[in-house]
Amino acid sequence: MYAIIENGGKQYKVSEGDVVRVEKLKAEIGEEVSFRALMVSDEGGVKLGKEAEGAKVTAKVEAQDKFRKIIVFKYKSKKNERKKQGHRQPFTAVRIEKITL
Questions:
Q1: Domain that holds residue 78
Q2: How confident is the model at residue 50 (pLDDT cuts 50, 70, 90)?
């Protein structure tokens, strides 16, 4: 059984027991959070739209951290114009506990 959830404008394919890194959530470590399921697939088939409207995915927050640093380098040739920046995107790691219909 798996589900497609939405968080922060992105969609994730999850199943029970998975650890997923989603956009940062305002939640403490150990707290339970829930996501709206856009699609659910189980033994009975795939449920979309109104069929999956009541589906809910519950997860437990495992960590609040940042991804590794990426370098953003902007450059214009022949103009001696250079700009170097680093960026670390924050994330929340959640463990999927249960998918309910």
A1: 2-100
A2: confident
